[in-house]
Fold:
Amino acid sequence: MHTTPASMRKQVIIVGNTNSGKSALFNALCGQDRSIVSGQPGTTTDPVQTTMELIPFGPIVLIDSAGLNDQSALGNERIRKTIMVQRRADAAIYAADPLDFNRDDYHVFRKREMPHILVFSKADMLEEMTREALMQEYPHAVLVSSKTGTGIKALQETVAALLSVQHPDEESLIRGLLSAGDTAIMVVPADSEAPKGRLILPQAAVLRDCLDHNIKTLVCRETELEQALEELKKTDLVITDSQIFGFVNRILPREIPLTSFSMLFARQKGNFTQLVKGAEILRTLPDGGEVLMLEGCTHNHTHEDIGRMQIPDLLRKKTGKSLRFHFYSGYDFPEALSPYCLAIQCGCCMLNKREVGFRLAALERLGIPATNYGMVLAWAYDILDRSLEIFRIPAAR
Structure:
């Protein structure tokens, strides 16, 4: 819990045309030789990223990308990957070679209305007159030299300022649900997917959030829940892994609120109302319907896997429909969405808020319902109403 996960950091991407000094700038900003620097166009192929501390802002993810005008044999694929990464970035650094600055390309980028900073690299190669002319034309730009280090500190401060003025994310997972002095129980199953010796990210994040807000928290397995309830004088909320929703619901007295880690993350990162509405159409899925399953992380799959095994089996059994499931992992997201009657997103603990927002907006534009793992499992166990009560959002009848 001492290291902020990448999904909870602001993400900054360096973009620009080939040979504009992006990789040298990336190395200078993070203080490491992470990206290959070469005069050969198209040196950077796949995006390269690193986590770092941006003083005085805080933890960020810095991403190097391929040139937006890459004309190599694989140029189109490289540009596609750069655009894919841009959708999850909170801000961009547009690197431009001042001796070969294509203003048209830059203005095309500006039309995307992405928060960004224009950076003229290779400042050590500029004559004074050229420098003054550029800064007069683009007064908010930053001049840097990755070779000499000139302007790097100023750029870091400018990026920090840009991130600081953005609308702050609602970082807390339990904000507005529990208050200081309340007591929560986290039910953590010890199944074959649980990593030995540590909690998985959603569990660790919720626990830390409770500690930060002075909420007393007891962590137990489902087999110890009854005993935990007897020992506590008061329990204000039980948070469980979605896959044991049914088991916990049977044990837990009705007056104690119940929800899941997955639903807390859905509220933090996505359009919660949209996801609730998506769960409400589960009963009307068409026979033979195509369902898009979106897994935020990549891992080995077992017979206990929630997304690949449990949810498909439960939905087929509960609806009696012959549904077909299509799986995408990590940041992969299909370009063609029209075949799908429903999208089911995981808890998104490994995805940042901008990526989740992009996905949900794309689905909503096409009228494709979307929901998440926790809501599907709550619906399958007939406890969707109960699991939503703590959020004060009743499920539709």
About this structure: The two ends are 40 Å apart (CA to CA). The mean pLDDT is 87. Residues 6-165 form a domain with the Rossmann fold fold (CATH 3.40.50.300). The chain has three domains: 6-165, 183-262, 271-389.
